[in-house]
Amino acid sequence: MNIRKLLALTLAVVMLASVALADWTSEDYAAAAKVVKTSYAGKTVILHSNDVHGALTGYAYMAALKKQFEAAGAEVVLVDAGDFSQGTTYVSDSKGASAVDMMNAAGYDVVTLGNHEFDFGYAQLMANLEKAEFTVICADVILDATGEPILPAACLLTTESGLKLGFFGMETPETATKVNPGMISEISFCTFGDLYTAAQKAVDTLKAEEADLVIGLTHLGVDAESAANGYRSVDLLAKVEGIDFTIDGHSHTVMTAGENGEAIQSTGTKFENIGVVVIDNETKAIEDNFLLATAGITPDADVLAKAQAYVDEVEAKYGAVFATSEVRLNGDRDPGNRTEETNLGDLIVDAMVWSVVKEGGIEQVEPNHVVGITNGGGIRATIEAGDITMNDINTVLPFGNTVAVVYVTGAELLEALEASTFSTPTAIGGYPQTSGIEWTIDTTVPFDQGEIYSLNGKEGSYYGPASIKRVTITAINGEPFDVNAVYAVVTNNFCAAGGDTYNVFARSESSFDTGIPMDQTVMDYITDVLNGVITEAAYGAPSGRETQIREEVTEEVAPAA
């Protein structure tokens, strides 16, 4: 908490000492814990979350904070900006249904969708939402059969004091390639200018309904990889008129304003913070917004017990120790699996290749023409040194993906690597973790952007390369690379279907899905090949399959005094 805000809160304590007060302990996300005492009479407080990703016990903190603000005199509205259905086995075991149940328990009012809401398919999502006791809105996901949004684009919430809050929901168009395309074939996502048109229409509708404030629940984020297409929340704010405030998700950013001061707030991920927006009921204006870290909040006992029941059930199912690791297996995002080769990426892809070739190989190609690729964005957690449980592996690989094989030429393999590193060294979910490929990415050379990829007749989010300028393959399984040869790429069914930047895999004329779950593949590899121990010698560090050429950063040295 900055000094200005701390002084303001201190002054409020002095001025309102005679008012009936409510107490709670909060820890500002950038400072030590502080006890705040104040009154919120005459205020409406919006509490918000985003990218919860299966952190079920966090809902107990949200429920507690709601009660504390209400005890201080505020009217409280709970909202979420998406990605609640996936991220830990505590939600993936129920295909997202447990997250909806916990949001009901916490008392959410309005929610929009994140890309991971679709991980189990459109039909499963809609079945989950039938049990929601809150309003779900999304303006830019279209049911192809009707040409209309799958959910209401917006909603008007009127508080007891008469304040009219207009919310509209926006989903990242990148969902089209961040979810297995085969599981969302009946829907489309508004892209480019259509994204802004959908948002403007929702805003205009809320204005016509005389909303006092229009607030965007946007699962768009501010990632650099989304800038080229204008799919960030800050791009939306620049293009759409009439938005008073934006509550954002997707990029896991911790911010109380945009880079250029935009009225936008985001909490990070997994309830590391809870967002607070304070509105004065009389002036109908936003007077403050800030973040509170959950570390300093006492959780609501009833909601915590409900969450713990889910946790205990899953732990009983997946909690058995089956192996140990001598090293930390790096599941970080950036720097990590979305920016560079990691030891965990090496382990996973090695396991995938082994699962396919262990029974005698692949008949269509020679053994030395079998390679492996998986997208770094599919690796979701770190495994610390020590005991390893099934739950650890499921948390790393929560999507239920299976091992697949696609046949491509050397030229197509180059295209896949070039497309999937277009923003490197800036993070990208498609970043290739590889096995059997010795390759180099020269990040000092600009990506030669070609035509936008399309899939199943629908425009995607990523561009193919007009030429191969950044990536070179120096060897395949220790032998010379042949641009005209056919290679079998062991990958996951998400990438095989064209997910992320792997459009070239979807164009393969020959492919098959083994049906072997990725998490089971990794567990079997650790048990059968590594004898239950991940050693320092085997995976203590990345093996050097990938080399990056980056611009040298010259540090200026101050002259001696």
Describe the structure.
Helix 2 packs antiparallel against helix 9 and helix 10 (343-357) crosses helix 15. This protein has 2 domains: 3-310, Metallo-dependent phosphatases (Purple Acid Phosphatase, chain A, domain 2); 319-549, Alpha-Beta Complex (5'-nucleotidase,  domain 2). The strands form 8 sheets. It has a 6-stranded mixed β-sheet, with helices on one face. Strands 9-10-12-13-15-14 form a 6-stranded mixed β-sheet, covered by helices on one side. Strands 22-19-27-21-28 form a 5-stranded mixed β-sheet. With 561 residues, it is an alpha/beta fold. Helices cover 27% and strands 29% of the residues.
Radius of gyration: 25 Å
Looking at the structure, the CATH topology of the largest domain is Purple Acid Phosphatase, chain A, domain 2
Principal-axis shape equals: globular
The CATH homologous superfamily of the largest domain? Metallo-dependent phosphatases
Sheet of most strands: 6 strands, mixed
Mean pLDDT: 90
Helix content: 25-40%
Helix/strand class: alpha/beta
Low-confidence stretches: 1-37, 557-561
Strand and helix map with partners:
Blueprint: H1 3-15, E1 22-27, E2 33-38, E3 43-49, H2 58-71, E4 75-80, H3 89-92, H4 97-106, E5 110-112, H5 122-129, E6 135-137, E7 141-143, E8 148-149, E9 154-158, E10 164-171, H6 175-178, E11 187-189, H7 193-208, E12 213-219, H8 233-239, E13 245-248, E14 254-255, E15 264-267, E16 273-280, E17 285-293, H9 301-318, E18 321-325, H10 343-357, E19 370-375, E20 386-389, H11 390-396, E21 402-409, H12 410-419, E22 432-435, E23 437-442, E24 449-455, E25 458-465, E26 471-476, E27 486-492, H13 493-496, H14 503-506, E28 511-517, H15 518-528, E29 533-534, H16 536-539, E30 546-549
Parallel strand pairs: 3-4, 4-5, 5-6, 10-12, 12-13, 13-15, 18-29, 19-27, 23-30
Antiparallel strand pairs: 1-2, 3-16, 7-8, 7-11, 9-10, 14-15, 16-17, 18-20, 19-22, 21-27, 21-28, 23-26, 24-25
